[in-house]
Structure formats: C-alpha cells, structure tokens
Specification:
CATH architecture: 3-Layer(aba) Sandwich
CATH topology: Rossmann fold
Number of helices: 5
Shape: globular
CATH superfamily: Response regulator
Order of helices and strands: EHEHEHEHEH
Distance between the termini: 7 Å
Strand content: 15-25%
Number of domains: 1
Helix content: 40-55%
Strand order of the largest sheet: 2-1-3-4-5
Length: 142
Amino acid sequence: MEKKLSCILVIDDDEPTNFISTMLIEEAECTHHLEIADSGMKALNYLKKATEEVGSKGDFIPPDLVFLDINMPRMNGWEFLTEFRKISNGHALKPVIIMLTTSLNPDDKQRAENIPEIADFENKPLTKEMIERIIRKYFKAA
C-alpha cells in the first residue's frame, strides 16, 4: 500500500476475530501502528491517552481508522460511541469509524446510517480487499 495510516484501532471482544484482523491489516501494510482493544472501555482509555499525547512522541497514537464491533459485553458499540463523543469533543480526534459486525438486523444498519461518527457499516469478516477499499475511499490512497 502506497500511503500508510498512522494508526488503526480495532475494537472487538472476540479473540479469534482480533487475530484474523491483525493478520489481514499487517498483510495489507496499511498502517504504522495497529492497536487492538478487546472492550469498549479499553478503547476509550486508549483514545483518552492518545488525545492527551497529541503532538508528543508517546505510545498512544490517535487512530485514523477505527473498526468497531456492535455486540460486545459490558459496553456495546452504541454505548462506546456515546462515550467517544464525550472525549472527542474539543479534540482533533476525528477517526473514520467503520462499524464491523455480524449483525443481520437491518435496524442496526439504519441506526448506524443516522450516527454522524459512523462512516460505514460492513459485515464481518474483515478482508484485505475491504481494508484496501476503505482506505482508498476515505484516505485517497492508491
């Protein structure tokens, strides 16, 4: 991939899904840093630290792209987005958020379309072609 993103954040509670996503993103060679969060709370903690370290050379890099699962225990994707709004307001934290899910409920897709922070709604599993298409669409990469 010609243009690499600074950071991709994957938020999913499923370990096998995260393993596959990691392999595919690394194979696509599309990012300098990949962060996996197995819960919405861990993702929020990462994002809070990333907003605090903007401009520094810290370990927490604000993501350009977020793959977000809907169905997670304790904090689902919708709840994550509510909390994300609280930390993104007033910061330059504006990642492209792709809802990546196994949900077949058409209401989920319609709900996602009405949330401005969600750029797109994709069905799992993540594929290399999907990654490349998303990066071309949202980041004008070749």
